[in-house]
Specification:
The chain has about 400 residues and is of the alpha/beta class. Among the domains are: about 1-70 and about 220-275 and about 340-395, Rossmann fold; about 110-200, no CATH class. Helices cover about 30% and strands about 20% of the residues. It has a seven-stranded mixed beta sheet with strand order 8-7-13-14-15-12-16. A five-stranded parallel beta sheet has the order 10-2-1-11-17, covered by helices on one side. A three-stranded antiparallel beta sheet has the order 5-9-6. The longest helix is centred in the middle third of the chain and has 26 residues, at about 160-185. The two termini are about 20 Å apart. The structure holds flavin-adenine dinucleotide (FAD) and uridine-5'-diphosphate (UDP).
Length: about 400
Amino acid sequence: SLIVEQAGARRQMPADRQFPRTTRLGSMAYDYLIVGAGFAGSVLAERLASESDLKVLVCDRRPHIAGNAYDYHDAAGILVHKYGPHIFHTNSDDVFSYLSRFTAWRPYEHRVLSQVGNLRLPVPINRTTLNALYGVDLRSEADAARFLSERARPCDPILTSRDVVISQIGPDLYKTFFEGYTRKQWGLDPSELDRSVTARVPTRANEDDRYFLDAFQAMPLEGYTRMFQRMLDHENITVMVGTEFADLDRKGLARHTIFTGPIDEYFDHRLGSLPYRSLEFRHETHDVRRMFPVGVINYPSEDVPFTRVTEYKHLTGQVHPETSISYEYSRADGDPYYPIPRAENQALYKQYEALAREHDDVTFVGRLGTYKYYNMDQVVGQALATYRRLVAKRGVTGKL
Ligand code: FAD
Ligand code: UDP
């Protein structure tokens, strides 16, 4: 049985963390099947395997671990992110210290410039942006705040991604920086998107040009994939990449499934399809040391087909005579990358969530599994909370 197989290998754990092995179903090969080896799946695999000493099978349809955070050395030997720029930032001590078990860090504060005509201007919009764009000389935060409030158009209530920007900075700046970018990125006008989308990008009256203000801003020193390898490197974890959930013979495989793919896919779209936005990337290497002054240039104009370009050496700090960049094109079809935050989609997700509650053999987690526009740190926090909930549930019901 499993218990005999594992007896020699089991580590000492606090009693309250030990699962009652004697109640386990001896016929199952694994305690957990985890679908997806991104942050959601890998954090849960690590916790269940190392903290609770459970046997976990992780599968991912992609030929690699790390989900959307996957990075690799390209043909030139430059560390790039296959699925676009991933910058780690968080205000959570818990999340940062948890991940720090699996990686050292390189401090990195992300900066973005937006290409407006011939100008490259800081985004989030700050005092420097205003002075350069309008040829004015706003000298203090109060000056800049006044300048913005004179342009702002009050909206009540603030419901959409258009409302939230117009009410802060007015129609001109909205059109210049947000309207075209958002239409390209989502295939929708900002007035058709929940306010939370553009609210991710603030406006500042000072000269702080950092994209994020979080307490912790850093990149995994040897890259994301290396960090994931360390998380998943455990005797209780088996990883199968290039493996579709639907292709697994699940008879006798695991007592419980954790699904981090699209929740509507799990249920065969039976309530209808949840919309996701997809991306396409064009990667290039150039024979120069550096192409851009910062890691990412945004292109808000609808005349330009891509939304942003990333030069990875800024993010990673790698020293190399050449440089690799990627262009990001937004797509309606293809792999799901973004849930699309708007009321009707949320309503459909809620129906799937209710359906999920009727199934106690599966737990949904992650950006696609819970249809939430989450950053990496939020997914890690959600996965850690899910682990605690699974442990607590087992305490009450005696089964996990
Ligand atoms: P994923 O990483 O998507 O992992 C899910 C995995 O499940 C995938 O690998 C998929 O192949 C697999 N899967 C799905 N269905 C199946 C199936 N049926 N069978 C087998 N396998 C399956 N966050 C930040 O904090 N900072 C950033 O700078 C940042 N930049 C981003 C840039 C882009 C372009 C994108 C798209 C996202 C960015 N994010 C960023 C968000 C970050 O990618 C996510 O928060 C995080 O990767 C989500 O982790 P996850 O495990 O939920 O999902
Ligand atoms: N956005 C924009 N112009 C910009 C940057 C962002 O209009 O220069 C809007 C756009 O709708 C985008 C959203 O703000 O999808 C969130 O931006 P963020 O950079 O957080 O997007 P992500 O990195 O998640 O793709």
